[in-house]
Amino acid sequence: MVDPRVIDPEQELVEYGSLTEAEIAQVVRVLTGIRRWREAEQRLSLSSRDRMKLNETDMQALRFLVVAKNDGRLVTPGSLAEYLGISSASTTKLLDRLAAAGHIERAAHPTDRRALTIRITQQTHEQVRDTVGRTHARRFEVAVGMSPAERDTVIRFLDDLSQTAEAGATAGESESSP
């Protein structure tokens, strides 16, 4: 439920008494739209991961490798671990999984004999581009269809919304801390 009249009828959390019914209905439509988009995004992500038999961290790693390949940057296990925020042991397991599935190749670093580089295979690169890339292209087209002022409004709204999520996560952390 995203309607404060239902979840907070006494206005203990949300003060909406100064809004008209039409304004409340419009805000509820915005929040409903966000929920629908988030649910659709989750379904799309799950579908892509299921098709490729990957978990979320695996997909994040592959997206990172696509960007690095497109930028001409070398990726080491350490740089991937740092990006993903995981340990070197977890990175080794992840790379073993991705290599066994044919998604990545390991190679000697061109200037550091002690280091390895990781690159995405061409087939997986094309697969990620065809799924994730096409989705991003459609999102880009939606944003292009808006006026600059509309985009500025959406940017401000999404930035403000992100801050509320971050503040909520921080509050949740402090509540669970001893």
TrEMBL record:
It comes from Microbacterium elymi. Pfam families: MarR_2. InterPro entries: HTH_MarR-typ, MarR/SlyA-like, WH-like_DNA-bd_sf, WH_DNA-bd_sf. This is MarR family transcriptional regulator. Residues 21-163 form the HTH marR-type domain.
